[in-house]
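user: can you give me the structure for this one chain? tokens are fine.
assistant: on it. calling the predictor now.
[tool input]
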Amino acid sequence: MAVLECPFCYKPFEIEAPDKLHTAFSPEKPIRNSFHGNIIKLKVKCKNPECKRTVTVYWYAPLEYFNRI
């Protein structure tokens, strides 16, 4: 589980990683050569009943994780 702040209403809400490999997330696409493998782009709805806008989240496997192994 991770906590994301809605960029429209600024209310925090929880989001879940798509799998165990993609542990980092960003509201912007990560820069090239900063991640391993592919990027998973997910659209999630804000949990605030007054907002409910769609937020794009990019999940990726950061290179720092693989450098420690």
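assistant: here you go. The chain is about 10% helix and 45% strand. Residues 2-68 form one domain.
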